[in-house]
Amino acid sequence: MSLEELETIRKKVLLHSRGLLFLGWVLILLGLGGGWRSLLLLVGLYLIGLARLQMRDLQAKFKETLVTPLAEALGFRYSPERGFSREEILAPGLFPSPDDYDSEDLVEGEVNGIPFASSDIVLYDEVEVKINNTTTYQYQEFFRGTLYRFHLPFSIEGEVRFGPGGRRIQVVHKLPLFVGTFIYVVGLLMLVVGVLFGGASVRDVLPFGVLWVLSIFPILASTIRIKKGFEGSNRVVLESSEFERFYDAYGDQVETRKLLTPRVQEALVRLRKYFGKPIWGTVRERYLWLAVEGRDRFFVPLNRPVSEVFEMEKERYQEELSEVARVVEVLKLEEEAKRRGARWENPFVGQGESPPAPKKENPTLDGDEPQQTGDTPTRSHSALYDILFGKRR
Amino acid sequence: MPLMSALILVFASALVLLFVWVYNTVVARKNQVENASGAIEAQLKRRRDLIPNLVAAVKQYMTYERDLLEKLTQLREWAERTQGEEHFKAEGELSRVLGQIWARLEAYPDLKASGNFLQLQAALTEVEDSIAAARRFYNQAVTDYNNVLEQIPFTFIARAMGLTRKPVFTIPEEERAVPDLGELFRK
User: Fold this and answer.
1) With contact defined as beta carbons under 8 Å apart, do A105 and A134 qualify?
2) Superfamily for B27-186?
3) A37 touches B at CB < 8 Å
């Protein structure tokens, strides 16, 4: 699809979906009157849903057109609408089972002989909300970010996990914590005001004081839930103070140290600083999973013209795609494989799927500009490739 | 005087709790060192078990290193039957001789082609990694233990229990100079 065609579609879909949104909201407002007009409310909700679906499709088209050639230039496969399955998300044991989830932007490929897959995921927990004796259920987001999966050419015994500040990713109901803290602070203020300005004696307020002190426990309980570490494994204190600042490691004392050598600890610290976001990780058998919180790698601002989006976002998209190479590079996974004398068996071979083209040059983590790769993109995207990277020689 | 009695009771309870906590902390640190020491010994045993296979795999190629291989076998037996300081000395010597053998492998290109030997080499590399990790575990445990021994209030209980400082593992100068085995085989 050419840029002009995409721009035409963008304008058309935006006009259409905005019209639907406007109409939907008007019908909802009219439907609030009750009676037969409730039907209008339902139609309004349907139209809003339809508009959102159209926008979503447009996002996918944009991603397909903008990101795919970049991914192919790096030797990766990109599928905007595909993502990890529930089983794949739960496999690293980093997340509690979500009530609902979104998964998109699947990127697959191979970097320095290490096959990988990554996907943006959003996990939701269903929470009960009671307002005026009416109970409703809402989906509360408890993780949004990118999950990377690397197929290692060596295997490890047992399981090693690491995460920030000794906590695993879990559902935290912020409302009770917030309400509890609010009541606690207000309670203290009332006691102080009562004694200082209300003429109450300390003896008068003593029972309330005791209640106030005891009310700290539910709040503490919420906090402890947040701080809960990985179950069923030992905390391993490692040498690097910086690593300890960003991560707590869990696993067998010897196996964890064997994997998290001082060099790997340093690499994980660099990775954490590079992403600037919390990172969780699991290594088990031949897999390494990394979950980086708070990212939506290929967000497309639909309200801007296609050419403008191209100019503004292409570097960011390329950066996002290159990050996986940085992970492999920083962790020196291929060197680790050679050091361990591992003989690599490509998991793509024998599954009716051809391995992706190897990436020839990777950007470094030292702040160098991403390097253009020598791989040739597919014909369907060659025009786009020329626009993004300039004419090929 | 009920208030005074209550205060004394609270103070005494606090003291008992403090004693229990301090005692448990010291015991936990001591046990952690023993646990780490056991982990090292388990890995050293794995290495000793691999040595006969190594000798069998290389002796037909390394005909000029018979003395070295014999010494390796003797050191293995010495390490098997000794304990304590002498045992660690034997293990240290074993590491040094193994390092010498790896260094001389370059002169025997036929060995590089041997599948059995490559498997053995991977296994020994893995064991050496485990030994290094176990040593780091031991050093961490000993550091925590030594810290507790010198910190107030733990030092009082530790002295009463007759506990003394333990040394941490340091890498001998000759071991630091051991060449990268993987690099040798990549050449």
Assistant:
1) no
2) LemA-like domain (1.20.1440.20)
3) no
